Amino acid sequence: xxxxxxxxxxxxxxxxxxxxxxxxxxxxxxxxxxxxxxxxxxxxxxxxxxxxxxxxxxxxxxxxxxxxxxxxxxxxxxxxxxxxxxxxxxxxxxxxxxxxxxxxxxxxxxxxxxxxxxxxxxxxxxxxxxxxxxxxxxxxxxxxxxxxxxxxxxxxxxxxxxxxxxxxxxxxxxxxxxxxxxxxxxxxxxxxxxxxxxxxxxxxxxxxxxxxxxxxxxxxxxxxxxxxxxxxxxxxxxxxxxxxxxxxxxxxxxxxxxxxxxxxxx
Amino acid sequence: xxxxxxxxxxxxxxxxxxxxxxxxxxxxxxxxxxxxxxxxxxxxxxxxxxxxxxxxxxxxxxxxxxxxxxxxxxxxxxxxxxxxxxxxxxxxxxxxxxxxxxxxxxxxxxxxxxxxxxxxxxxxxxxxxxxxxxxxxxxxxxxxxxxxxxxxxxxxxxxxxxxxxxxxxxxxxxxxxxxxxxxxxxxxxxxxxxxxxxxxxxxxxxxxxxxxxxxxxxxxxxxxxxxxxxxxxxxxxxxxxxxxxxxxxxxxxxxxxxxxxxxxxx
Amino acid sequence: xxxxxxxxxxxxxxxxxxxxxxxxxxxxxxxxxxxxxxxxxxxxxxxxxxxxxxxxxxxxxxxxxxxxxxxxxxxxxxxxxxxxxxxxxxxxxxxxxxxxxxxxxxxxxxxxxxxxxxxxxxxxxxxxxxxxxxxxxxxxxxxxxxxxxxxxxxxxxxxxxxxxxxxxxxxxxxxxxxxxxxxxxxxxxxxxxxxxxxxxxxxxxxxxxxxxxxxxxxxxxxxxxxxxxxxxxxxxxxxxxxxxxxxxxxxxxxxxxxxxxxxxxx
Amino acid sequence: xxxxxxxxxxxxxxxxxxxxxxxxxxxxxxxxxxxxxxxxxxxxxxxxxxxxxxxxxxxxxxxxxxxxxxxxxxxxxxxxxxxxxxxxxxxxxxxxxxxxxxxxxxxxxxxxxxxxxxxxxxxxxxxxxxxxxxxxxxxxxxxxxxxxxxxxxxxxxxxxxxxxxxxxxxxxxxxxxxxxxxxxxxxxxxxxxxxxxxxxxxxxxxxxxxxxxxxxxxxxxxxxxxxxxxxxxxxxxxxxxxxxxxxxxxxxxxxxxxxxxxxxxx
Lengths: 266, 266, 266, 266
Fold this sequence. Notes:
The structure is a homotetramer of 266-residue chains. Chain A has helices at residues 15-18, 25-30, 68-76, 118-127, 131-136, 142-152, 159-176, and strands at 3-13, 44-48, 56-60, 78-86, 102-104, 107-115, 183-190, 195-201, 210-215, 219-223, 234-236, 241-246, 249-254. Chain A is an alpha+beta fold. The A-D interface holds A 13, 48, 50-52, 55-60, 68-69, 72-73, 75-78, 96 and D 13, 48, 50-52, 55-60, 68-69, 72-73, 75-78, 96.
């Protein structure tokens, strides 16, 4: 499991979320409160939107608490929309390519969770990707592959539907492989305009998800767990929810995987 | 392109090949003589056979010339059979998982060369792997995938045949994908007993390959390019050759890809 | 604070101490039991004695639990005397040069503890080193500097006296700098023949230290905390003790810093 | 020896200098034209000025050509004043702390050159630093120490004088140590407002230095060697020169080390 935080609002320094709060993401990399494993030290990353449509990306393999580059970048870079992640590997090696966020064109994605029995269905899921998305695969994690599935399932035009179909695809491929479908999906993603998040698990025990104001009139956050309690109010998002956050407001609706009637390649 | 060196004989320190000679592999990482690109600084690795049937493996992403760990390991570890490699990436990222040697059970493999148009046939080649070999894939290089193909094509029982069939498979899959088959394959591999090497290219311009005595009565080497000329005689191996080196002697025979009548999965 | 383990006896695989036990050093890197901070993920290292008088050295900056090289080296390298360490930084950056063990000629050194107010006395301590020892400094930790002081204070001829004098020097330099002397020193070191350890703190709260048999008739260990309880009996070493372990047996005597009547350079 | 490039003018993307030109700094990391050694692959770094008085800093140990983070940061970060460097080590280890730029408060510094006989005078030079500057030392290079000397010699109030006095100090300390003074100093540094550079060597063979327009009316560069010839005119700066570049213009004056009448500590 992992920890992550995403921000949408007026431009602030990345460190205002990543490093400055009392229970910041950097602190959570060493000692998370609401995670199964408290240590999230298998690398980290941040994607931020600035002067270009596609996000910037900085990922590395050290624990977030000891990376001097992250500290300096957090102090210098201002952004009105960014997604940051500290990793606790559930299997894949510690490498930059396995660190979140993952990026595709304008889209970025961070994930806390797991595809159960991934090693049994990885190839079948990869084979359902179109060539250009297969070529985008950089690492070997279930998280990255889920994101590429979302892109292939229409992320640009229909974010909710894309996640729903990708989740349905995972469940269907699991069944075909003769394994009990198991998916834990607490994730955020963005195209540089809107910030989306989902909390879902096949066993209704998805990792936690919260929204809260960064500061009144400045911006809002979506996070794995609150990064402080000082004057901030956090709302826990229920199981099986989909969050859409724009500069105009935040909406929450129920989330469920699509019933897959997918023509599977291969 | 890359540079590599392999040794078979009495146990010597790894550094006796890797670092001590005047034109050692470490020197070649900075300035190779017979390679297209002189710099081979995208990581390195060494596999050696010792007290266990499977080899030890040390790989990292720094240039070989600046890695203090490699220097110390080379001074300490003695082995009668080892394969070492310095990498010049032809595409894949600089990561440990993309560094040679690659290992599967008792087998290790190092490669200098390239599968032309790899991005167009990678998935088809992966799909011809059995599940357990697909699961062994760690990185994203053409070299590693070729090695897994060799394992799947019967490496344990028939080394020559396995390389021949894997090469044939690459050519056939290329043709099916509508691209001109292009393979450059100057590689060495071992099961801990015998050292094999191959030099082959579809255009008859395979990277160089040499054999030579390490020292009279001590051991023999197979290398990309000679690591010194001081008192050593090197034999250039012709294009389209397969080398088999045991403690009893070295044999060379012509090599050609198998004509593929392969039932391709998928 | 950090965790470490040292072994002396018949040659065993490094992993038999580092990775195999139920509460091995690798496990302790993630979750130590008797340390102030449970996480020891700011790099690791191991020094081992083999075919040469000077030890081999492998150090790197990843958490020990995620380093594939450490895993392979631990499975391959056999040694009758080795020292291993997982680091929790008390200040210095995460770099290879700041990872333990530190090496000087035949000697290796691992440390758990701290020199209080180090930043105020670092230069004075460095200036008490002879030129050739000053040149040996690679990193910026208090641990390494203490080791170089030991070497300068006669480690080769008088291990107990060297540690005692180096500790006395730290206390004296602290007093001259107007700060309350504060030293925590739970350390092990070796010349490749004898394994020494010390447990001392100015406040009598030195980090824990234990000795125990690895296996009857095979070898013995000195450790920060027991690496398992299965059939092994561990002896806690009292505060202010000096341990000398040879292949013939283990002796313990009281330890105290020397009263410094040092002519300080500068 | 190393390669570097600095820019002052309207805000541009870092990549416009670092990666986009035909003979960009990234290209020079693999194959420099006017350097003794063509390969500059022992790490890299960039300092840039943005929304804060002190610069941002990104440094890492991979060759610049293979660092995906550098590529992304270069595409995202815009700055009107930045200094970038690719390193070819003349001695110090490959570590982040030994990579340029070095930073002190608002000041940043990049260097191509060497202090001859550095190992013989390192400690004496360190001892001439005030405590707070000694504490700022992060790595072990002659370049960083020269920069800290500059800061101690009045960089804030008198940039020319500070470099002149620091250079004089190196020469004087060399003489006192009984070695022939030898200094090669082709360096740039800035406080976030003005960009300074110096070209000097005791043997009148200082590494090359050029100035040129980035684009008419946009900005100007100071570089080790031209990063392209396409429509740009480069001016070689003579030996023993000091360059001062502001948004208003560029001035060049003769440079000489101060005659040291320094009271040396220790």
